[in-house]
Write a structure and sequence with these properties.
Layout: H1 6-13, H2 18-24, E1 41-43, H3 46-54, E2 61-64, E3 78-79, H4 88-93, E4 98-102, H5 109-113, E5 118-122, H6 127-140, H7 144-165, E6 172-182, E7 185-191, H8 197-204, E8 208-209, E9 219-220, H9 222-228, E10 232-237, H10 247-253, H11 261-264, E11 268-272, H12 283-294
Length: about 300
């Protein structure tokens, strides 16, 4: 969810909205003409799909991207392309009553409006944005109560982390989201910089970002890692089946940085799972994982 979909959506839609009319075979209809809960929903992002299933609207989802792999039920839904290359034809063929996307795609809402398809763009750039979007999606889908319950549960877990990690030392943490593994070790590390989603999670988990400058996800050289000299390294691996190296191999590769404090003290940690990079409601699982690593003394369950 960190890449922009704008340029490929522009390629799909061309210069304007007329191609969408012809593909869908419908003319303009009043936007929001019906107030009933939508029965056919298309999700254009994995994080949105997760929210829809969380609030009990999963049975009404008729289309998702090929990257929507959680929960397992999402795998059975019709595919409308990828996150950065969704097919307008595939979306329209499903005759959706509601299409939900991320804010990065908001410029194309008007094209859906013109064919009478209600569209909603939500912001998942921050944990607070995710919480707000759960409520917004809940209202749009007629699942307000379940959305409110979900947000309350997430807030409770966030508060539990804050209350146990808010005091005491705040170690310097380097969070990485990609790396090149070679026989010589790790190089070309992509790390979470200032202002990134993971930067905020570091703070919520009671740490200080060792990479305290923008951009959000820069490439850092081996020399840069050694200069930062973090107390803790947390390496996020979405899927060891799809990327080189098992969890053990990733951990071993970090030993190249023998002079880095995190290596000297054995505080290299690998977290595996799609929740590490999908900025959706499972951010709470990553936050709790990070808090346990940063503050093992806090006794988080």
């Amino acid at each position: 969810a960190m890449a922009s979909a704008a340029y490929l959506w522009a390629a799909c839609l061309g210069c304007g909205c007329e191609p969408v009319h012809s593909m869908c075979g419908e003319g303009p209809q009043p936007h929001g003409a019906s107030s009933r809960a939508p029965g056919r929903i298309v999700s254009l992002a994995p994080s949105v799909t997760e929210i829809l299933f969380m609030i009990g609207a999963g049975d009404r989802v008729v289309g998702v991207t090929r990257y929507c792999t959680y929960p397992e039920q999402a795998l059975a839904k019709a595919k409308v392309g990828g996150y950065v290359d969704p097919s307008v034809e595939a979306v329209c063929a499903l005759r959706p009553e509601l299409v939900i996307m991320l804010a990065e795609q908001a410029r194309y809402l008007s094209c859906l409006d013109t064919i009478g398809v209600k569209a909603l763009a939500v912001d998942h750039a921050t944990p607070q944005g995710i919480l707000d979007s759960i409520l917004e999606i809940g209202r749009a889908c007629g699942e307000t109560r379940r959305a409110q319950q979900a947000v309350a549960a997430l807030r409770s877990r966030m508060e539990a982390v804050r209350s146990r990690t808010g005091t005491g030392p705040h170690p310097r943490v380097l969070v990485t989201v990609g790396r090149t593994i070679s026989p010589g070790g790790i190089s070309d590390v992509f790390a979470a910089g200032k202002g990134s989603f993971h930067d905020e999670l570091i703070a919520l988990a009671g740490g200080i970002n060792a990479l305290d400058r923008p951009p959000a996800y820069p490439m850092v050289t081996a020399e840069g890692v050694m200069r930062m000299n973090p107390d803790i390294v947390i390496d996020l691996v979405p899927d060891t089946d799809a990327r080189p190296g098992t969890e053990a191999e990733v951990t071993a590769a970090w030993r190249k940085f023998a002079g880095v404090r995190a290596v000297k003290t054995g505080r290299i940690h690998v977290i595996v799972g799609s929740h590490t990079v999908v900025t959706g409601p499972r951010f709470i699982e990553l936050l709790e994982d990070m808090a346990r690593i940063i503050h093992p003394e806090a006794g988080l369950p």
